[in-house]
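Journal club prep — side note

Before the paper discussion, L.F. wants everyone to see what a predicted structure for a comparable chain looks like in token form. Sequence:
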Amino acid sequence: MKKLTTSLLVVVLTSSFAIAQAQEKNDTIKAKEIEGVVVTALGIKREKKSLGYASQEIKASALSDGTTNTGNIASQLSGKVAGLNVTTNNNFGGSSNLLIRGIKTLGGGNPLIVIDGSPVNNTYTQEKNIDYGNALSDINQEDIESINVLKGAAASALYGERGLNGVIVITTKNGKGKDDGSWGVTFSSSMQVGFIDKSTFPEYQTSYGAGYSQKFGTQASDGLNNANFNADASWGPKFDPNLMVYQWDSFDPSSPNYKKATPWVAAKNGPIKFFDNPTTFSNSVTLEKGQKGKNISFTYENMMSDGLIPNSHLNKNNFSLKINYDLTPKLHTSFYSTMTLQDTKGRGITGYSNNIATGFRQWWQTNVDVKDLENSYFANVDPAIASASNNYGNVVWNRKSAANGAPAYWNNPYFQAYQNYTSDNRFRSFTYAQATYDVINNISVTGKVSYDRSNLMAESRLAVGSLPQAFGQSNNSVTSGYARRDVLRTETNYDLMVNYKFDITDDINISGVVGGNIRRNYFNSVYASTEGGLVIAGIYALSNTKKAPLASDESQFTTQTNSGYVTASFDFFKKFYIDGTWRVDQSSTLPAGNNVYNYPSVTASVIMSEIFNTKSWMNFWKLRANYAEVGGTADPYQLANNYRSAGILSGVGIYNSILNQPNPDLKPQRSKEFEIGTEAHFLKDRITVDFAYYKTKTIDQIIPLPVSSGIGFTGKVINAGRIDNTGYEVQLGLVPIKSKDFTWNIDVNWSKNKNEVVSLYPGITNLLLNSFQGGVSLNARVGEAWGTLVGADYTYLNGEKVVDPKTGKYLQNPNQIIGNTTPDWIGGIRNSLTYKGFSLSFLIDMRKGGDIFSTDMYYGLSSGLYKETAVGDYRDKNVVLPGVLPDGTPNTISLSQFDNGSSMGYKTQPSREFVYDGSFIKLREASIGYMLPKSLLAGTKIYDAKISIVGRNLWIIHKNLPYADPEAVVGGGLNSYGWSIGSMPTTRDLGVNVTFKF
């Protein structure tokens, strides 16, 4: 991959420099202002040239014009910002994980999201292996004017402990209207459809069928063979069209094959035919009007999506209103409110158990036709015939026996999709009101209140007739059930700021802010379920329970943070800039004496092009440096014991045991960062370069540390641990061609972050973060980068793999480092070309490194699904594994493949064999657009019209992970690192967007 990536960069950059040099003499366009105004922390507008830290602004057009509507603006940042790593999974309506400048805390962490200066919730929600997405998906994409990514501590220090992982600053649009002052109307509509990228789904072998050995199951009374019904593997007898066999559908009265033996052949319709082509329809209308001192904008957007899995649907409605109004020449007011109503049905289960895709990837019979399963489900689910005898429509391919049609391992995938579906509805609102009063020309006072509220009600169903499985509050195995989770989150912010600006001399001035903030967060969650199954099939209510339900699982907390801050920005001769900030926080989740903490930042920038007068060839050159500290507080209920009800026993309330020992002496965690950088513009902005180097140290982290259960606890909350991050970021902008009618822009970003867990706690060298199916875990290990994968490796002797002389299989060495999820570097290259009314753009997104453990390959190779397991006569001969015996002599012990002595998969190979390099190169986005000429619109009420053909994830140019997308991990948070299991296939999405302005 290194050669491919390097070659791609060299070709693009070399050609761009050559063309830029050739075009320089013909460039008749006047250079624009080099450094514009950007929105920074607290919504403060600053000249970009004065900033002493790295930030990167993305305009709305670069976010959305070149791609399909993903429904989550986070995913549309992929490949566009240096230092920002975006991981988007394939879960329907699922999460996108954002990471700026590496992992800074042992528990991971996402950047703070801010809208017009006010923080909003971006919580990732997962319940019982269901990914409900992150709250950033609620933001109305049509409202966004720009996004500014504040990367380092100096950029985000004014947001206090919440700025530890960087900040995503979203600025919303103001109403503009028409030039004549009348109302403007914008209508946008898009339609898109997805097609499965077959490189992200298994390629099955078509030579062998169901079973764990090449022998059939029991014989029927007529002497013909029964298939191995209760084997969820394909290591069975070789296919032979002349061989007649009784298969699962031979016992389904609704099937045309009922009581018939059928040819023993590979299925015509494999699992890939189970999936639908996902479609999305999106329509929005914006009404806006604006003039000096007052403007208004109202937007309504509706998005309807159908997912890959049958019976999955999402309907989202967004309403937003923004008003800016000057009540007097000195009193300016702003109001913004957005509301999201979303209903989702059929989110897929993630992880291992009950995940349809896990069955397709790991445990399946290649003789089973999914279309036959579909026909059987719909024929048997009819209430007129649905009964216990046919599992209420759950007719399965893995019968327990010829006489027993109950599922042995898996439900019929259509029964799972149409009966055991999840559903959820979410209400989200975010509102702020702001007033600014100009006391004098140099001083203004701003008061602001913002309120963010989200309600989630999520339901899970287990239909009568299902495979028995762990379910509900008790997690007991049942064949039916119903559960629901209700979650309420609110955040209220009260802000008061005094903005000042004074000219000390004609060439020296100072500006800044003095302010305070009060933030209150409230959380309430209730989980309840039936117990013992449903009394009446098809009625999903907590009251429809066979046994007395357990006490509801309830959580509630209220937290408050009080803050004060001051900033000072000095401008010397428009050449030298020095900024300083100071913030003090008081947190309610830390103990008295440790709950007040402060942190400073100082930045400096020098405009070298002004000092050395380089404008003839380098029209702008800036050097910058900064140092900053950011604090971090604790989660609620870490200081004292708290108890959860476990129900009532003999009339007396009982409570669950306390497993984690609280710590009444917790103190805030702290991150310290140093950064230097430079920015240069050459040839009248035809070439722009931005470079940054940073080093971050995070200490006194608040972590749950495992302890010996002999003291009565299994864990203890402590301050410990240090993580260092060192990295480089490069942004490169090129304009190879720029003329009256044709412009070609190239934007390149690249970043490399080196992470190290320097220390944990005296005597502790490893902290378990997550456990994977297949015996692999995600860890923070001293001396390694965060995200160490630990599992079984081969045993080696002089560099050779050692074979067990008793079994002929490899000897395994447990608890070894087998990989690390941290990528070596990430990058993106975006090309944008315009010619008169035509536009063309495409984005190449890249990641180098970052290991991934595939549980699918770990099990799927052993169960005989994949094509590798049936190459030639592989299964019909003995295999001698390459390696040596413990005495150092070459291995000569053979394995019989006939009876599933597979030399591939978990039965023979350690988990290290299934760790893959997570590198990829993707054609992430592409679009072709055409702006209709004004002459064509003359005489109509339309003054602007554009049509675009857009695409997303059109081509995975390179990847190393077989049969899956390296990005398609389990979910958000810690589940977004290093684990590929049961993921949905990636789709190539194509769409058409049209926009009309009236």
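L.F.'s comment for the group: The first helix runs from residue 2 to 23. Keep this in mind when we get to the figures.
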